[in-house]
Each structure stands twice: as structure tokens, then as C-alpha cells.
Design a protein that fits this description.
Bound molecules: zinc ion
Number of helices: 5
CATH superfamily: Collagenase (Catalytic Domain)
Helix content: 25-40%
Distance between the termini: 81 Å
CATH architecture: 3-Layer(aba) Sandwich
Largest sheet: 5 strands, mixed
Shape: globular
Strand content: 15-25%
Strand order of the largest sheet: 3-2-4-6-5
Length: 223
């Protein structure tokens, strides 16, 4: 029965064509990762390489910054504000009442009016359960879950597609095949993500101009 092999990631569905976008120029994107769950370094490395390969195929150049981890004692993050080109991924545990792989793997906080978001959360324990059911590494499932949520943040919507990482439901059979090419974004999704990233940078630049202009026009009344 088809539904027995499907697992929910989020909300509604929509079809899209799966055409990967190989681009020579990749837009830089930084991913700040905060691991509150306790993923092993090996699985975190697998998640990072999965994320990188899929995002690069979509025309993005991700830099992964591990900002907190149970296994690591030193981190890549300085005490700097989150930049417009940076997204945040939290890895946490969620309450689980059974060993069923059903259930969401994470969620994103998206402003659908502004069409952007910065913070995504993925559930490390659900990724482990689904990976075990599919017979693959939990790091691979975690990477796919991260990519899915980053897609929401960059496209600025909560929509899903019929193929690739933005599917609402994932097939155990497809996961078990473990073919990275099956999880590439469509050409349209890639364009939407790159446009979303460019819009984030443009919005930040406009805000800076506005602030600078305001500072220039402050009237000094102290004299
Ligand atoms: Zn989703």
C-alpha cells in the first residue's frame, strides 16, 4: 500500500519538474548549525556533504559553520551577528511516542509575506528512526531534512513539490536507493532559491542605505 511507504515532512503538495541546474557561478550561502541533539561527527559530516552536493547543484555555494555540537569543543562561529547571507539550522530532539518513522522531520519559520526566513529546525531523533527504517545513514536523512528546510527559507514559502527534496512525503524505497540525483532541486526551485538569496542581500543593503541616510540628516540641536 503506497501510503505505508510515505512519510510526512510538512504541509501541502505541488508538482514541479526535476531538472537540476548546473551553474558555473554559485551564490555564497552560509549555514550556521547548532546541534542540540548530539549527532556524531561522522553523521554530521555526512549531513554536511549531502547538503553541499544538493545545494551546489542548485547554483549555491554553501559554507557550513558548526556553531555548537556535543562532540566538538571548538567551533567555527565567532560572536558575530547573523548576516543576510546566513541561515540558521537547529538540530534538536522532538518527543516521540513510538518507533514509527511517520511524522515531520523539521520545520521552518518563514515570513510568507516577505518571502524569506532565517531559522530552521530539524529533528535528529526522527532522522535516525527514518534512516533506520530506510536502511541508510542517519546523516543522509538529516542532510535531506536540512536541505528541505533551507528550501523553504530561501524560497520564502511553505509549498511542496512532487519530486526532489521539497516533497511533502518521502518514500522509503527512494531513500533506500540512496541516489543523490533523486534529491536535486528542480531548475525552477533552484532559480527561486537564488532569487530569494539575492533578495535577502538587497533588502539588507537597502536597510543600510536608509539607516545611513537617516544618520546624515539628524539635526544637531546641541549648539
Ligand atoms: Zn516542508
Amino acid at each position: 500500500m503506497r501510503t505505508a511507504l510515505l512519510f510526512s515532512l510538512g504541509l501541502c503538495t505541488a508538482l514541479s519538474n526535476v531538472v537540476s541546474a548546473e551553474r558555473e557561478i554559485h551564490q555564497p550561502l552560509t549555514i550556521r548549525v547548532y546541534d542540540r541533539f548530539g549527532i556524531s561527527r561522522g553523521q554530521l559530516d555526512t549531513a554536511r556533504s549531502t547538503t553541499r552536493e544538493i545545494l551546489r547543484k542548485a547554483g549555491l555555494e554553501p559554507t557550513w559553520r558548526t556553531c555548537s555540537s556535543i562532540e566538538r569543543s571548538s567551533f567555527d562561529c565567532e560572536e558575530t551577528p547573523v548576516q543576510p547571507s546566513e541561515l540558521i539550522v537547529r538540530i534538536v530532539a522532538t518527543p516521540i511516542v513510538s518507533d514509527s518513522p511517520n511524522g515531520p522531520l523539521g520545520y521552518s519559520q518563514v515570513d510568507t509575506q516577505a518571502r524569506m526566513g532565517t531559522l530552521a529546525t530539524v529533528f535528529g531523533n526522527r532522522a535516525e528512526i527514518l534512516a533506520k527504517a530506510a536502511g541508510i545513514e542517519s546523516g543522509s536523512v538529516l542532510g535531506l531534512a536540512i536541505v528541505h528546510e533551507l528550501g523553504h527559507l530561501l524560497m520564502g514559502n511553505t509549498l511542496h513539490s512532487g519530486q526532489g527534496p521539497m516533497q511533502r512525503e518521502w518514500s522509503l524505497v527512494a531513500l533506500n536507493r540512496n541516489l543523490i540525483a533523486e534529491w536535486f532541486f528542480s531548475r525552477l526551485e533552484g532559480e527561486q532559491m537564488r532569487r530569494g538569496l539575492a533578495a535577502r542581500l538587497q533588502t539588507a543593503a537597502q536597510m543600510l542605505v536608509t539607516l545611513t541616510h537617516s544618520a546624515d540628516t539628524v539635526v544637531d540641536t546641541s549648539k
